[in-house]
Amino acid sequence: MKLIKLIPLLVLLIFCSCKEEKKVLSAADLEENSEKLNSYFEEQFQQEVEESPMLQTRLGIKTDYGKWDDFSSEEYVRDLEQAKERLKYLKDVDSESLNKATQLSYMLYRQQQENAIEDFEYRFYDYPINQMFGYHSSLPAFLINMHSIDSVSDAEAYISRLQGFPKAFEDIVENLKIREQNGVIPPRFVFEKVLDDSRNIINGKPFMKSAEVSTLLNDFKTKIGALNISEEKQQQLTASAEKVLVENVKPAYKNLIAFMEDQQQRATGEAGVWKFPKGDAFYNNRLQRITTTNLTAEEIHKFGLNEVARIHREMEEIMKNVRFDGSLQDFFGFMRTNEKFYYEDSEVGRQKYLADAKAIIDRMRKKLPDLFNTLPEADIVVKAVEPFREKSAGKAFYQQPAIDGSRPGTFYANLYDMNAMPTYQLEALAYHEGIPGHHMQIAIAQELDEVPDFRKHSFYTAYVEGWGLYSELLPKEIGFYKDPYADFGRLAMELWRACRLVVDTGIHAKKWTREEGIAYYKQNTPNAESDAIKMVERHIVMPGQATAYKIGMNKILELREKAAAELGENFDLREFHDVVLLDGAIPLNILEKKVEEWIEQKQ
User: Fold this and answer.
1) Rounded to an integer, what distance in angstroms lies between the CA atom of residue 255 and that of residue 202?
2) What does residue 589 show for φ and ψ, rounded to 5 degrees?
3) What is the pLDDT of residue 7?
4) Which helix (H) or strand (E) holds 286?
């Protein structure tokens, strides 16, 4: 009886195994399928370019040069539907029928669509107007830094974009109203800063009788002044720009200011996203997206505390080396207040800072062949953050080059408060933002020939910022940071990122106040109080973002150490860097898999 019952089961198993046996595809089939999917990726990327005039400008394309993107809430819904359609298409693709490179693209693209669909629930959980990168400052900055004027038509497109401010700000204000209906209002401190920046934009000529020319008019006149056109044509264009600035830009800002002043009255001092509906779930979502790991807020918080303690111990060794007599806190005070560590607060001091930053980058550039097989073609320049946004902008940041080579990468240094830009941190800062940091990684990603365009512009924060922080350490390993105070600066920068793990999770998961976050930085770092204030305020409006640096750096170092240990004499640092860099930005779990495969191949 048992045998009779078993026979149909065996037949069934044989039938199933035959049915599941997959056809072995030839190399030609794999390439054909991969080419088809890569064509789809390119088609979808070009659709995104077509739908975004601002992306076109970033890419050096001038098709819709006089337009802005769509900032209305309906755009969120369109993006959701687009993600669903793409995911539906991808589910019909057999990933095993693709070559290895296209399998990676498939996995990344599918994950992006799935994330977009999951994140739709939290589309109104951010602050579109904030002191770090709000539209009130980012749109003027876009015109100044991205909108080049090489012809009269380019100048007219600039004026057209000025005309578009009222519609753009109207949509942005509507989104702010929806957020408020959902219980999302920026904390009280944000308003004073963004209102100040907004008023700065409409200060000076032609907005008022003044000897000072407004930021946007000055930019426009400077750019058309370089054109080979008659003085009469320049005057015509300037007159048109002045008219639009007064009739379009000024009312747009006045309406935004009026709304922000009204909403300011309802703002509270509560800092963390725990105050939002589903705030805890939103923060967990942010941590997963930012770190590309499953680390919990508590795990990140504890890791941060351990790293702070370790770096303090290394700093104490430097204290001994320079024969400083006192506690670590005393040493922090010494580094914070000694005049020899700061440039003078003047135009001369600011120019010296920029010149020294450029010299550090140029010196590092000569050493790159010792560390890398692949170097970027794009150049990099060093600039000060523009006056209209320097008061509230971050300490330093990087702007990627145009993919067509028409614009170099830019390392921006915020020189508003020279006491917040000590010389002992300059070396590490230049490596992070410039070479071998963000410029190296982002420029190489944009210049890759064998990956789809969507991957050249993908941004995984833990990978990108992890590489930036790793790049602060890398020069030390080849003999840089000869000055012990500069090495202290490197540690101070790493300590800053370790503290971020503690404070970000403290604010958003443990209900720390803004003041508690500031106090933690002041107690545990040598940075200026203004640094601490800006950083905590950044945590508040960009939840989770600042956890990426140390998480990413730690993973890159962990993988390098693993590869070096397993490969021994066969370990090549330049090859390792190729493995890390030559697929563009990727999640940390994918990076780990790539390095492990490389180790196996080398063995």
Assistant:
1) 12
2) -65, -35
3) 32
4) helix 279-291
pTM over 0.85: yes
Residue 395, pLDDT score: 86
Question: Is residue 76 within 8 Å of residue 116, measured between CB atoms?
Answer: no
User: What are 453's two structure tokens?
Assistant: 């365009």
Buried b (16+ CB within 10 A) or exposed e, 152-175: eebbbbbbebbbbbbebbebbbeb
CA distance 361 to 350: 17
pLDDT at residue 15, rounded to an integer: 37
User: Which helix (H) or strand (E) is 409 found in, with range?
Assistant: strand 409-413
pLDDT of residue 4 exceeding 90, the answer is no
DSSP-derived letter for residue 60 is T
Q: Do the bridges between strand 396-399 and strand 380-384 make them parallel or antiparallel, or are there none, so unpaired?
A: unpaired
* Helix/strand/coil percent split, the chain, to 5: 70, 5, 30
Q: Are 161 and 62 in contact (CB under 8 A)?
A: no
| Three-class secondary structure of residue 396 per DSSP | strand
Query: How far does the chain reach from its first CA to its final CA, in angstroms?
Result: 54
- Per residue in 163-187, pLDDT (tens digit) is 999 999 999 999 999 999 999 999 9
Please state, in angstroms and rounded to a whole number, the distance separating the CA atoms of residues 156 and 365: 39
Omega into 484 within 30° of 0, i.e. cis?
A: no
DSSP state of 477: G
Q: How confident is the model at residue 21 (pLDDT cuts 50, 70, 90)?
A: low
Question: What are the C-alpha distances in Å from 342 to residues 205, 394, 528?
Answer: 35, 18, 12
Residues whose CB is less than 8 angstroms from the CB of residue 230 and which lie 6 or more positions away in sequence, other chains included:
none
**Radius of gyration of the chain measured on its C-alpha atoms:** 26
Say how far apart CA 509 and CA 301 lie, in whole Å.
10
The DSSP string of 528-575 is: -HHHHHHHHHHHHHSTTGGGHHHHHHHHHHHHHHHHHHHHGGG--HHH
C-alpha–C-alpha distance, residues 548 and 491, integer Å: 17
What tokens does 191 get?
């308003």
Residue 293 contacts residue 589 (beta carbons within 8 Å):
yes
Which amino acid is it at 146?
Answer: M
373 neighbors 428 (Cβ within 8 angstroms): no
410: three-class secondary structure by DSSP: strand
Give the mean model confidence (pLDDT) for residues 229-255: 98
For residue 390, pLDDT over 90 is answered with no
AA identity, residue 47: Q
